[in-house]
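Help needed: design a sequence for this.
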């Protein structure tokens, strides 16, 4: 092991295997100690963007005692995905040092906002976000599928398939309209995700077979992690809501995943979205934890 002396803060664009093991152990220890559910993906750590600093490691006497990991939310935003300090080394300013270095790195790359994520049950995480003058923005329930409650009643005019680069215009249109996001911003995200081997888009089209009118009406993204699948950005065009198509798309996506693996299937939903919550619960998803999001201007 490389000697880090008494104290050392390292920045990484690609953590080594030994560092990944240390990060995993530290996050697991903190989860057990604090009763939290912080998710760490080994695949994510091993496939960081080239030349982009995302991981910050704090060593004390060659022992990893602090870690902060970032994820990208686009050109101007980055997410503080995980920030942990060993229970025996807290109240020493380690997290503040990690955050200061991460903020400087973000600012140097033109990032204007840092998104802080804290589980609602984490008193220390909430206190840190407020102490840093983070602005609370919204909360999400993290849900996991227990048993799929299949309705088995489908509209044959709705079909679902895995999308590819030829479907990029349809993906952008549906996602932008479903979430009221600018198409230019969505295009950047979709283009990047289509190049990620761990991601795939599920596209729903509506219309009669053979008539040449198959309108894109729904979309979701499936991301493969080490030990679970996550469903993201699930949207249906406003004029096609309330017809049961959301449930049909979700059930099709779950069956698609289950043909490949029995790993857990997870998703997140805004705590104020009662319609989506009702859909997910009726399909068999149950809440694991709740995340609060804060914005920190750089």
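Sure. Designed sequence:
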């Amino acid at each position: 092991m490389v000697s880090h002396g008494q104290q050392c803060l390292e920045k990484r664009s690609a953590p080594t295997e030994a560092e990944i093991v240390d990060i995993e152990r530290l996050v697991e220890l903190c989860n057990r100690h604090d009763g939290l559910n912080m998710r760490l993906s080994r695949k994510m750590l091993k496939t960081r963007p080239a030349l982009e600093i995302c991981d910050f490691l704090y060593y004390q006497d060659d022992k990893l005692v602090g870690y902060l990991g970032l994820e990208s939310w686009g050109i101007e935003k980055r997410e503080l995905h995980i920030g942990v300090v060993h229970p025996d080394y807290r109240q020493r300013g380690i997290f503040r040092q990690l955050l200061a270095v991460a903020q400087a790195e973000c600012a140097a790359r033109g990032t204007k906002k840092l998104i802080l994520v804290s589980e609602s049950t984490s008193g220390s995480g909430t206190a840190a976000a407020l102490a840093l003058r983070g602005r609370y923005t919204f909360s999400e329930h993290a849900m996991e599928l227990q048993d799929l409650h299949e309705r088995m009643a489908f509209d044959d005019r709705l079909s679902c398939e895995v999308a590819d680069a030829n479907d990029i215009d349809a993906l952008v249109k549906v996602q932008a309209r479903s979430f009221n996001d600018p198409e230019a911003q969505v295009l950047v995200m979709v283009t990047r995700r289509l190049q990620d081997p761990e991601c795939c888009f599920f596209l729903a089209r509506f219309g009669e077979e053979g008539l040449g009118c198959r309108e894109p009406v729904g979309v979701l993204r499936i991301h493969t992690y080490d030990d679970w699948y996550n469903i993201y950005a699930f949207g249906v065009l406003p004029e096609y809501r309330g017809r049961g198509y959301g449930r049909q798309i979700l059930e099709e996506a779950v069956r698609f995943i289950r043909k490949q693996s029995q790993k857990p299937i997870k998703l997140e939903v805004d705590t104020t979205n009662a319609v989506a919550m009702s859909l997910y619960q009726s399909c068999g998803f149950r809440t694991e934890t709740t995340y609060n999001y804060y914005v920190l201007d750089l």
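The longest helix spans residues 17-34.
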